Amino acid sequence: MNVKVFPNQGFRNAENVLPFVNYDMAESYVVSLNYSGKSFNVEGYGIEKIPETLFFPVSQDGKEDFYDTLYYLGLVDSLIKEYGGEDFRKFVFLNYAAPDFVFNKKKEKLCRQKPCDAIFLSFATVKLIHRTSFLEVSFDPYFEFSNVYFVNLAHALI
């Protein structure tokens, strides 16, 4: 029997979990969702409560510094390297974002757009520690697709 075990944040109990699993994941280490309580008339959807994307640095001391985020990503990576068993295959960072909302030409309704900044930041930040990142976009999975996931960083893009 070939069973794969994929906990959510097993690294938090790394010594007792990672030696026995194949995969692990963490959520919202780079970007996440926040609902501010604002509602707008969204084109094609009517009145909706509008979420916004939070761009983190994750920080213990309250100072916003990108290096804090890299520190925590590196800490997770070191736990994987130390405690991941021989069958450990992959660690994934899952982030969440809202679509970007922009006013239509008449400035009467908001339209949804792909949150490219959130996708790129999520992908690039996690690549700094050679791990995988995906971004879930609330409301519309179409906005999750990006060619950035298929870029070969070893070759020029032009």
Structural account:
The protein has 158 residues and is α/β, with parallel strands linked by helices. The chain has one domain (16-150). 22% of the residues lie in helices and 31% in strands. The strands form three sheets. It has a three-stranded parallel β-sheet, covered by helices on one side. β2 (31-42) and β3 form a beta hairpin. The longest helix is centred in the middle third of the chain and has 18 residues, at 66-83. 22% of the residues are buried. The model has no long low-confidence stretch (mean pLDDT 83).
What labels describe this entry?
158 residues; alpha/beta; three-stranded parallel β-sheet; two-stranded antiparallel ribbon
